[in-house]
Amino acid sequence: MTAEVAILNKTAVALAADSAITLGSQKIYNSGNKLFALSKYCPVGIMVFGNAEFMGIPWETIIKFHRSKLKSKKFGELIDYAKDFISFLENEHSVFWPPQVQSKYFNDLVVSYFQLIVQEINEQAEAELKKGRLSVEQITELVSTVIEAHHKKWQDAPDLFTECDVYKNKIIQDHGNSIEQAKKDVFQQLPVTNDSALLLIQICTLIFCKQMFSNSSTGVVIAGFGENEIFPSAVEYQFEAVISGKLKHTQTQYAQASRENPAIIMPFAQQEMVNTFVEGIDPSYRGALHSYLNELILKYPENILSAIPELSAERKLELIEKLSLVAKDALIDFTQKTNEYTSTHHVNPVLQAVYALPKDELASMAESLVNLTSFKRRVSLQAETVGGPIDVAVISKGDGFIWIKRKHYFKPELNQVFFSNYYREELGNQKGKK
Do 326 and 380 fall within a single domain? Predict the structure, then answer.
């Protein structure tokens, strides 16, 4: 896991990311790079969180390969840089992820999901066995019911794109044999009807066409300025895989500073401490409080009326119905009042301060918010999945991408050649054109 934040006002956007990388369930390294300049020449940055690799390739390698392809190319709007990056991932799939790699990733994901279904079948079967023996017909019905439930979950999810049917056919054409083999290997002797087998095939296609993502997906944030933009913006995507030449991705957030909205704070990945700082209350505590009050207020009329023996059953039901409506209105009013208080006394004052912050203070605030999450993890019993040096950058229209804090695995003073070569190729090409 990780903690990252983007803070925008009308002058600049500050980006901050920690360095913790978790391997397996316990091993944590505090040297990961998650924040990069997307372009050498344009005021655009990129952050990644979640999986440190994309289908076996480190994100750092992918981003820097894209940067070498981008060179000095410019776009009018920030969103166009994001679209170009997405296009790069799809167009370069033959270099990074040739067909055999895509097939292996597809097979691994399908096998993993089939194992999840079988685990659910086994758990339900064990629960039923405690009540008595299960016949073959009952097991077959149980298998069909679980598969149908999973199929419905995927079928009801929103589509990622319009041409889903064409893509589904291509997936079956490219990976039909893998699906059949995975079904045999995972379900083995379990009775799978022909109808359920067809549903399993459909699930394998829906996985890559629907807006539901696995834990192995990666969040990507691109922030900065387009050539024609006065104010900064930031856009967040979720990426999962390239299968049959198509990238499964979705846009999850977009925000742009403006005259009407001059200050924005966008936390990513582990967000709870940033939200606590901005809103004045821990999000999980707020959720628990509202859940408890909802249960308390809705049960209160029934508890009171049950203590009045003189009331008839019909009268009690009538009064419970009326008082329940009053209780629901009171709960809605409580939610509105607390939200207004949060906005007035916590969120708005913080955003007003962000609006006026100069670039160096903007960077300091971004670093502090990430460090706050790291500190909470360090002093609690939670795993320290946020930590290490915090990389910080500020992007402005005039100055471009500026590193405020950046860790190096080498000593900069001993590697002057690295810095002198950074722009050499592009500058040489520009001189040649002149």
Answer: no
